[in-house]
């Protein structure tokens, strides 16, 4: 009996080794793509779903994700080759273009199609109206960034001059804005989810309006890369987009609680119900796209918002900084 076991095991050894080597080869065969995200937010739910559900892995990609708080830091990371792909506001590509880059940054996929911030009041307001901001202290975002430009665009839409009708604070670093408001700075603040809902639950503030609903369709957060990277790694970009497209469809087809459970590892300190309600809020206002295509109307609206804020260096033609060929190829297959 023992001799039979020894013989059997000796026969199995080659198969065990073959299986182990095959598994290792498959794992080692994953291509690493370094992605810099401008912030960690439920706003980017499809991205986290693509990672957690293995959609990137299915395409042979391993995502090295790092959070680089703020559009300026994210773009600097991309330009200095600290990342292959950036998830950041499209306005940053326009700023780089204005500086005359030899290797322009190209928007190739749109993740979110509305603003992702909410107006949070320190005090509970039962019947909110925008004119209640007049004379208040407003804790704004970084000058020239999408949250601040959209914020000013919406305020002006409601007849409020952000630089005359209220006290606008813009000297606080992006990563510290929520903490500053929690510490007592400002009567109103713009916050992303899940922070806005967490503040509401803890009684630190109350959500009174959505900047996303007010500003309409805009390429708020897009995936972009240097033109040279897209040219040299077209196959990788296509696989990247395909994984995201699968994730967007998955998010669309599952309820918010199911989605929340999948992305919770990225928000370990956030209650599952808060995550679910945040995802539902973004879903209801159309923040999550379904095709990843950055359309020309959205691009023009972006530049209108930048122009209104006095931050548009020069209007840039849609086809100069937007490449939808790969995305369209993926969704039409």
From TrEMBL:
Keywords: Signal. Gene3D superfamilies: Periplasmic binding protein-like II (3.40.190.10). It is found in: Periplasm. Residues 45-254 form the SsuA/THI5-like domain. SUPFAM superfamilies: Periplasmic binding protein-like II. GO terms for cellular component: periplasmic space. Signal peptide: none annotated. Its main location: periplasm. InterPro entries: SsuA/THI5. Transmembrane segments: none annotated. It comes from the Bacteria. Belongs to the bacterial solute-binding protein SsuA/TauA family. This is SsuA/THI5-like domain-containing protein. It comes from Heyndrickxia shackletonii.
